[in-house]
Amino acid sequence: MPSPAPAVLIVTWLGGPLLARCLASLQAQTLAPAELLVVLSRPRPELAPRGVRTLILERPSGFAVAANAGLRALGGRDTVLLNDDTVAEPGFLAALAQARQRQGEGLYQPRILLADGSGRLDNAGHGLFPDGFNLARGRGRVEAVAGPVPPTAGAFSGAAVLLTAQVLARVGHFDEDLEAFGEDVDLSLRAVRQGYRIHTVPEARIAHVLGASYGRADARKVFLVERNRLRAAARSLPASALLSMPLWTAARLVGLAAAAAAGQGIGAGVGLPGVAATLAGTAAGLAALPDALRKRRSDRPAWSLGEAGMWRHVLDHRVRRADLLGRA
């Protein structure tokens, strides 16, 4: 029996050639999407693609707001969420649908490749630090020698993921207070707390133009990453991780700084603006702790994974040294 097709939701800020390539790759799928929706996250009707159902937001909005608007419009069904700077291989949707049919409700992370033709990985899901920071798993490594993809991930990448209907109904959508960059790890951790797994599907292959919409090391991006990792951590990570967070964060920043000094890792080339953005993001995250803790209290009755289980998830999917040093 053929696997049921999911809907596909694409969030776009720029429209144009990137979106056109993404849409063309979906038209070439061996399994056609049940429904296709493009959300234009700023009120620019001239950027809307022709012949495709499009939702144009009334005001410029971050990724979380735009994605949620699309998920609501699709009615909470199984949905593949994509960035507009992705290009799917022909069997992409079929592989995701087959994995979902085999393994049931949950979140499904495809294999994401860099779109530069090098055969290198963007990521196969994300690894975790105990302070809520997440890092792409396998980024920059040549796919042929990167080794097998683990069956689950610590967090999914918002560039491409299948979210099943039950997860959307029970866990909810993205936290719109986060805006962008970290909304994916926040939803990942909330889903894990409720007992869902983030399955990896290496057969589902998609290419990603890394940083096409927001840049690779923009100060605003660095700010949001630091602010939102702290908010996500406070909402879902073990209480003991929160109490020891200053130590974990210090160790992470020292490691990233050491790698950057050697021209390696995601911190290479960030410079003083990135350092300032990191400090500002941390301050903003601390200021938002009361709201994050309020949400934690609201979430807690639905948790099925206790403190020890959540620690196991973080440690099983911890960031590895190779990912810390990797730079695409």
Descriptive key words:
two-stranded antiparallel sheet; alpha/beta; Spore Coat Polysaccharide Biosynthesis Protein SpsA, Chain A; single chain; 328 residues
Count of spatially separate domains: 2
pLDDT averaged residue by residue:
91
Please give the radius of gyration in angstroms: 19 Å
From the spread of the alpha carbons, the general shape counts as globular
Helix content: 40-55%
Give the C-level CATH assignment of the largest domain. Answer: Alpha Beta
**Estimated share of beta-strand residues:** 15-25%
CATH architecture of the largest domain: Alpha-Beta Complex
What is the tally of beta strands?
A: 11
What is the SS-derived class? Answer: alpha/beta
Q: Spell out the helices and strands N to C.
A: EHEEHEEHEEEEEHHEHHHHHHH
Number of helical regions: 12
The parts where pLDDT drops under 50 for at least 5 residues are: none
Distance between termini? 40 Å
Query: In the CATH scheme, what's the topology name of the largest domain?
Result: Spore Coat Polysaccharide Biosynthesis Protein SpsA, Chain A
The H-level CATH homologous superfamily of the largest domain, spelled out, is Spore Coat Polysaccharide Biosynthesis Protein SpsA, Chain A
The biggest sheet amounts to:
9 strands, mixed
